[in-house]
Description:
The protein is mainly alpha-helical.
Amino acid sequence: MSNASSRPLSPHLSIWRWGPHMAVSILHRATGIALTFAGLGLLTWWLWALADGAESYAAFSKAAAHPLGLVVLIGLTWSFFQHLLSGIRHLIMDTGQGFELGVNKTMAILTIVGSLILTALVWFYLLGGAR
């Protein structure tokens, strides 16, 4: 048998430099996981509280209005917008567009900036900033 140390190692860690496109790719996976588990868990809790009556719904509302609850809700909102915009970026790339390095980097940065802006706008509206 061949000695394992004589086999070439994958050069991905030594050749590739981190860029926005790599971060957005990882964020797309992470936000998908967050939306799947935390989002579905929260949705299930909300529906259960809604079906269980006023007392259960009041407990859910109190938890959601707590500062930690708001952090979770804002995080899920950001996850939704980041996942959505990253998905649109991938859809554009599926058509064969946006593979040029400059365009790809710009689209990746725009997904991050866009998700932050959209999240801020939604929560500005929800927390009564538009009144």
